[in-house]
Amino acid sequence: MVASAEHGISREELRLAARNHAMPLEGLRWPITPVGLHYLLVHYDVPLVDPEGWRLDVSGAVERPVSLTLDELRERPVVELTVTMECAGNGRALIEPRPLSQPWLMEAVGAATWRGVPLASLLDEAAPAVSAVEVVFSALDRGIEAGVEQRYERSLSLAEARESGAVLAYDMNGDPLPPQHGFPLRLVVPGWYGMTNVKWLTGITVTTEPFGGYQNATSYRYRRSEAEPGRTVTHMRPRSLMVPPGIPDFFTRARTVEIGPVGLEGRAWSGLEPVVRVEVSADGGTTWADAELTHDFDDPFAWRGWSYRWQAARGDHVLCCRATDAAGETQPLEPEWNVGGYENNAVQRVDVHVR
């Protein structure tokens, strides 16, 4: 379903926007996003989980099924990594006609440090069968989507599950996962869009057939029309975001700065290859200049900081920033329309008045 600009935001979209929240762009100033500012999307309900009765079961096409309590998971060898996570629908509300779903602008992102157990080690312990092809991750949250009653479930190929560096995380930024971020356990797959990082994880099932569940086969597919099957949405495309400079107008969020040198800063990331370049424009994307990149983390899937010194001249300006990754992919100036509004990594535009 889509809506044109003149239809405005529906009551259903407002309800979704009130339940889920984006990261304020000034949150880009923190290398690690504070938990309360990290973007959040809950598909159905936040489940109330009793940690004493909770277990993680690894089953299916395996030689040695595994069942672990939270305490038993915490006793296993630990891995910790910093990961930038972005919703696949980030930027959806900026394309026309607008797909009817969670109306993200471009702030559905955050970077956190996750601590937990390597997924690969648990799979090796369970010993998948030779005929195994996929791993299905099942959550505790349940609901109805497109008329289908379901648990939230996503899958990875067995190779992706083993080789992606995925973590079964029980801590976020040094503390146990909060309820809204998947307590007591969630999957974190570095470089992949947020829908892959299943929250409230309770089951891992190894299968000998491709998973045909709704979240894989129907949702989160890049399609140019309803008729085509499309391709699976996977890794984050390159994106950069700017901390809006100066001070905002309360309603429009347009910025006001003083004439003269203005420090611009932000973050950039990509899911497949590291970001190697960020450029800044002060004329809406006609001319560009290179920003300076920083290395804040050793983890390859954390975002990079950037900065640029802008000589602000009197008048109205449109600031933009764009990232390029090591594979040579650069953010487009305009969004690429698709049915679900996924992977919109068009450049950010910030209206600025210089006085």
Radius of gyration (Å): 21 Å
- Please tally the helical runs, counting DSSP H or I stretches of 4 or more residues: 5
CATH class of the largest domain: Alpha Beta
DSSP strand content:
35-45%
Q: What is the CATH superfamily of the largest domain? A: Oxidoreductase, molybdopterin-binding domain
CATH topology of the largest domain: Sulfite Oxidase, Chain A, domain 2
Mean pLDDT: 95
The total beta strand count reads: 24
Proportion of helical residues: under 10%
Strand/helix succession: EHEEHEEEHEEHEEEEHEEEEEEEEEEEE
Low-confidence stretches: none
Quaternary structure classification: single chain
CATH architecture of the largest domain: Alpha-Beta Complex
| Structural class by sheet pairing and helices | mainly beta
Q: Specify the biggest β-sheet.
A: 6 strands, mixed
Shape: globular
Describe this structure in words.
- It is a single chain.
- With 355 residues, the chain is mainly β.
- It has five helices and 24 strands.
- The protein folds into two domains: 231 residues, Sulfite Oxidase, Chain A, domain 2 (Alpha-Beta Complex); 116 residues, Immunoglobulin-like.
- Helices cover 9% and strands 37% of the residues.
- A hairpin with a 2-residue loop joins β9 and β10.
